[in-house]
Structure formats: structure tokens, C-alpha cells
From TrEMBL, chain A:
Protein function: Part of the ABC transporter complex UgpBAEC involved in sn-glycerol-3-phosphate (G3P) import. Probably responsible for the translocation of the substrate across the membrane.
Gene3D superfamilies: MetI-like
Annotated membrane topology: Multi-pass membrane protein
The name this protein goes by in its record: sn-glycerol-3-phosphate transport system permease protein UgpE
Record-stated family: Belongs to the binding-protein-dependent transport system permease family.
Biological process terms in GO annotation: transmembrane transport
Membrane-traversing stretches: 12-34, 74-98, 110-132, 144-164, 185-210, 245-264
UniProtKB/TrEMBL annotation, chain B:
Species, as recorded: Sagittula salina
Family stated for the protein in its record: Belongs to the ABC transporter superfamily.
PANTHER family for the chain: MALTODEXTRIN IMPORT ATP-BINDING PROTEIN MSMX, MALTOSE_MALTODEXTRIN IMPORT ATP-BINDING PROTEIN MALK
NCBIfam families from the UniProt entry: PRK11650.1
Ranges in a coiled coil: none
Keywords annotated in UniProt: ATP-binding, Nucleotide-binding, Transport
Protein name as annotated: Sn-glycerol-3-phosphate ABC transporter ATP-binding protein UgpC
Length: 279, 327
């Protein structure tokens, strides 16, 4: 095979891959974006034609105002849940990962098995609701935050533990000789070195918590507890024929995760792969 | 006063005993080197003195105080690690001052102490750099600085030079020896390199299989090694050691002769052998012989002498300096 045919083939494969990615990722987004700018009867057709009349701003205003500004309340609720859950996840996940990695003992091994089973065993909805009702946390944001922490903790601990394994133990020992107490070893030596994996955890978990649909649906019913993904659900029942507003809503709630991704994209990859090879 | 005394110190990992009862006294201001092959327990012993590794039984005294149960930070020790163990997120200044900041020493006093240490180690220009922007030798100096600033009674070094290249290593050997002279502190130094042990130590402790084989000054160990193990470990190239039939003809169980105490001649001599290999080091030449009665024999001769591979020569030991071991 000559060099020229090799480049030609590579070029062709590249074009095919780009086309595939375009169909899978960009086309649905375009469909949403175009339909979000149509009038209601126009959008009811659900086709790929350009709008007959562009009503972008009107749709934005209507979507935000619907149900007494439910979308803004949902933004607030979702952000609150995400920020609180992520804070707890990062602090707890790093601490648990540190203890499990640095102090191997029957107890820490048992805890590790529990954490792994948290990843493997599917969550049961009805018993969780019983428990939440028993401790008066059902239908509360606090309860929702704790549930998100519980669902995310397994993966978070796994990531932190693997990363801490790449930090030489001599650093801990040097700090101990310098007179550091165990909590100082963690907060002053280990935690600052966890920055790459912490960014990964923040981005990955915050997007999945912010975009969560099913868990708020089960555990957080009530008009005042609406979260961003649930606003879609409300729209569909209320405006069965108003697809334009539904799509506008999708566009609006996609923006925050998109911003997070655009800014932290590089750090996510760095955190995922750091420790894979000695660097 | 910082004498270090170990009394019947033992360490077991489960059923495996790695330190089998060590009794040792390290005098105040002494530079003591633990040397031995890998797995002999020298690093474990050092870590037990530091308190990073708990001991199973026995006692450790530092400066007349029993520190057997004390925390590492309460023992008056400082440690330099093989891989330096610098905090990567802190600057050189913060690295050296880390222990002081944990002890809540005021910032001005901390800076003053760090500056003083940096001057001793010529680290002044690098105080605001992160460790990754330093060379290996500079990192090693920062690690030593972190130890000095604590003003410890005892310095512990765990193979601190093994990550450096040969030229830097010999330079750091001299710097460490000078540092010891200037500070006058007790230093305990672990290495597997007998050259480091010979050149730096006041006292060498040869360890083998979790036990002390011999304790003595470098020249004592060189001139009168107590066991064949010490005889083979101290000195470079290694001493020629013969067991079995060859040794019995000499009236002992193990017969040892150092390469530098052999004379090679073309004429008469005690053993006849053929030259297998010649290493020319410039000042010296190391000649490897195959002697049918003994097996391989290594001799160190003057650098001016040349031998051809396969040449038949005679080798004679200096009987005054041969070692004969029984049992």
C-alpha cells in the first residue's frame, strides 16, 4: 500500500466518522433548536423545516413565565441540590477514599465492599421512600440531597481511592515526622494534591445530578420542589400540542451543563487519566 | 546529648520475623551507617527508630529518653527519604517551613529559620520554586533542609543518594560529611552501597537477615571482618572467598583473600590460572582469573600492567592478610 492511498483512506474514514458524529450529536440538537423557534401549530408538525415565523424571544418569555415562573424555581432547586450534594460528595468521598487506601484493615476492606455493592446493587425506590418518610425527609430538598450523595458516593470513592494510590506514601510519612496530625496530613498534604480528580468528580457528578429526572420524580413530588428536568414533564402534560415550548425548555435547561462542560472539558480528561501512567 | 540505644529490638510481620533482636548503641554526634543487602532489614530498623514502623518488642532510647511508644514528631528526629518526599504543591520555602507552620511558629521567625537553612544549603535562589522545577540534587538539598530546620537530635537518612547519578552522588557524599561536621548531630544513614558506608561512616553496622553481623569503624571492618559475610560485603572489588575442598587444603572452612592482596606474576606462585577478563580502571587493573584448583579469582594490580586474555599467570596471596574462618 502506498502512502498516498493510506492518506486517502484515512481521510475518507475521518469524514465518515465526522458525519456519524454529526448525525448522532448535532442533528437532534438542531432539531430541538429549530423547533424551539417555531409557533405552536408549526411545531406540531414535528418536521425539520425552517420556521415560517421566527418566534425565539416570545417562546423564551412564555416558557419562563409558565406556571408562575416554575422554571426559575426549578433552576434554583436544582442548583441548590447540586451544589450541596457535590460539596458533601467531594469531602466525604476524598476522606473515605483516603482512609480505605491508606489504612488497610478488615474494617476498611469491609467498607470498601459495601461501597462497591452500592455501585452494583440497583436502588429500590419504594423502601427508600419508606425510610425517607420514617425520618421525615420525604418531599424535602434535604432528603433529595442525601439521596444524590448516596447514589454518587460509590463512584466518587472509587475515583478518589484510585487517585490517592498514586500519591507516594512517603509524603504522608514526611508530614507525620514534621509533626502533622492525621487530619493535617489529609487537609494540608493530600487534599491539595487531589485537585485534578476533584474537578472530574465535580463536573461528572454535577451534570448527572443537575440533569437527573427519575429520582426527583420519585422522591421529590410537590409543586414547590420542581427540578429542571421535571419542568419538561409538566410541560408535556399541560401543553400537549405546544412542542415549541417544550423544545425551548430543553434548550434553556441544557445551557448550564453545557457551560460546565465547555470550561472544564480539559480538566475532566486530565483527572480521568492521571495516575494511569507515571508522570 | 542524643545517644541512640536499641535494646533487643524485634519486629515481626505476622509469623515472619524481620528484625531478630538488635542491640546497638550509637554515640552522640556519631555518623552511623546501616549497610547490608536488600531485605536485610536496614530500612525497617531505621523506620522503627523514626517511629513510622511500630516495633514488636524491645526498647528504643534517644538522648536517654525511652521513646518506644512515642509519636514520630515527639522523638526529636528528622528523616530524609529516598525519593525526597517533597510536597509538590508547596514552594521550597513552604516545604522547608512546613513543620514550623504546623507547630504554629510565627511567620517572621519561620522565614528567618528557613532563610538560614537555605543559606547553608545554597538554596537561596530557589526558595519560591516548586519542587518540580528543581534538579535531583537540589531536591535532595531541600529534603535535607526540611530536616535541618527542625533542629533534630538525630538525623535519619533512608538511602538518600540512590536516585542521583554517580557524579552528583560523590559530590553529595562530601556535602553530607561536611554537614555532619558542622552540625555535630547524630546521624543514622541507611545504604546498600558499601562505598557510601566506607567513605562517610564513623561506625558501620553490617546487617544480614535481620541480625547485626558486625559493628565497627570502616577500617576495622575492612581489616578484620568477623564473618565471611562481612568480609564479602565490605571492600570493592569483593573479597575472594573459597569454601569446601579448596579451603580445607588451607586448613579452614572458608578462606578469604582481597583482590588487592594478591600478587600476579609470570614466574612461580601459589596458584596457576588463566586470564578470563581484564577491567582497566586507569590507576588499577582488575584481572579475573580461572584457577583450576579454586575457581574464579579476582586480583587488583597496578594500572600499568597488561595481561592478554587466555594468558597463563601465577597468583600468590599475602599470607599476612588472608582470612581463615571456621564453622
Amino acid at each position: 500500500m502506498t502512502d498516498r492511498s493510506l492518506t486517502a483512506r484515512n481521510y475518507a474514514m475521518g469524514v465518515v466518522a465526522l458525519l456519524l458524529a454529526f448525525v448522532v450529536f448535532i442533528v437532534p440538537f438542531l432539531f430541538v433548536a429549530i423547533n424551539a423557534m417555531k409557533t405552536a401549530p408549526d411545531a406540531a408538525q414535528l418536521d425539520f423545516s425552517l420556521p415560517e415565523r421566527w418566534v425565539f424571544w416570545e417562546n423564551v418569555v412564555t416558557t419562563v413565565q409558565t406556571r408562575d415562573y416554575a422554571l426559575l424555581l426549578a433552576y434554583w432547586n436544582s442548583t441548590l441540590i447540586t451544589v450541596c450534594a457535590i460539596t458533601i460528595l467531594v469531602i466525604f468521598g476524598a476522606m473515605v477514599g483516603f482512609v480505605i487506601q491508606r489504612r488497610p484493615s478488615p474494617v476498611s476492606r469491609f467498607v470498601y465492599v459495601l461501597i462497591l455493592s452500592g455501585l452494583m446493587i440497583p436502588p429500590a425506590v419504594v423502601p427508600t421512600i419508606w425510610v425517607l418518610q420514617g425520618i421525615n425527609l420525604f418531599k424535602t430538598l434535604q432528603g433529595m440531597i442525601l439521596i444524590q450523595v448516596a447514589y454518587g458516593l460509590g463512584f466518587t470513592v472509587l475515583l478518589f481511592r484510585a487517585f490517592i494510590a498514586t500519591i507516594p506514601r512517603e509524603l504522608d510519612e514526611a508530614a507525620i515526622i514534621d509533626g502533622a496530625k492525621p487530619w493535617q496530613v489529609f487537609f494540608r498534604v493530600v487534599l491539595p494534591l487531589l485537585k485534578p480528580v476533584t474537578v472530574t468528580v465535580i463536573v461528572v457528578q454535577s451534570i448527572s445530578i443537575f440533569n437527573d429526572f427519575t429520582h426527583p420524580l420519585y422522591y421529590l413530588p410537590g409543586r414547590d420542589n420542581v427540578t429542571v428536568q421535571l419542568t419538561l414533564y409538566n410541560f408535556q402534560s399541560q401543553f400537549a400540542s405546544q412542542n415549541n415550548l417544550l423544545f425551548m425548555n430543553i434548550l434553556l435547561i441544557t445551557i448550564p451543563p453545557l457551560i460546565v462542560f465547555v470550561f472544564f472539558n480539559r480538566q475532566i480528561v486530565a483527572g480521568m487519566t492521571s495516575g494511569a501512567v507515571k508522570g | 546529648m542524643a545517644r541512640v540505644v536499641l535494646r533487643n529490638l524485634r519486629k515481626s510481620f505476622g509469623a515472619l520475623e524481620v528484625i531478630k533482636g538488635v542491640d546497638l548503641e550509637i554515640e552522640d554526634g556519631e555518623f552511623c551507617v546501616f549497610v547490608g543487602p536488600s531485605g536485610c532489614g536496614k530500612s525497617t530498623l531505621l523506620r522503627m527508630i523514626s517511629g513510622l514502623e511500630p516495633h514488636t518488642s524491645g526498647a528504643i532510647e534517644i538522648g536517654g529518653r525511652d521513646v518506644s511508644g512515642a509519636e514520630p514528631s515527639e522523638r526529636g528526629i528528622a528523616m530524609v527519604f529516598q525519593n525526597y518526599a517533597l510536597y509538590p504543591h508547596l514552594t521550597v520555602r513552604e516545604n522547608i517551613g512546613f513543620g514550623l507552620s504546623l507547630a504554629r511558629v510565627p511567620k517572621e521567625e519561620r522565614n528567618r529559620k528557613v532563610d538560614a537553612v537555605a543559606e547553608v544549603l545554597q538554596l537561596g535562589p530557589y526558595l519560591d520554586r516548586k519542587p518540580k522545577a528543581l534538579s535531583g540534587g537540589q531536591r535532595q538539598r531541600v529534603a535535607i533542609g526540611r530536616a535541618i530546620v527542625r533542629d533534630p537530635e538525630v538525623f535519619l537518612f533512608d538511602e538518600p543518594l540512590s536516585n542521583l547519578d554517580a557524579a552528583l552522588r560523590s559530590q553529595m557524599r562530601i556535602e553530607l560529611t561536611e554537614l555532619h561536621e558542622r552540625l555535630g548531630s547524630t546521624m543514622v544513614y541507611v545504604t546498600h552501597d558499601q562505598v557510601e558506608a566506607m567513605t562517610m561512616a564513623d561506625k558501620i553496622v553490617v546487617l544480614n537477615g535481620g541480625r547485626i553481623e558486625q559493628v565497627g569503624t570502616p577500617m576495622e571492618l575492612y581489616e578484620s571482618p568477623a564473618t565471611p559475610f562481612v568480609a564479602g560485603f565490605i571492600g570493592s572489588p569483593q573479597m575472594n572467598l573459597f569454601e569446601g575442598g579448596a579451603a580445607r587444603t588451607m586448613g579452614c572452612d572458608v578462606y578469604g583473600i582481597r583482590p588487592e592482596h594478591l600478587t600476579i606474576s609470570d614466574g612461580a606462585g601459589q596458584w596457576v590460572g588463566r586470564v578470563r577478563h581484564v577491567e582497566r580502571l586507569g590507576a588499577d587493573t582488575i584481572v579475573h582469573l580461572d584457577v583450576p584448583d579454586l575457581g574464579p579469582l579476582v586480583a587488583r594490580v597496578d594500572g600499568g600492567l597488561t595481561y592478554a586474555i587466555g594468558q597463563q599467570v601465577h597468583a600468590s596471596p599475602d599470607p599476612e592478610r588472608a582470612f581463615k574462618y571456621r564453622g
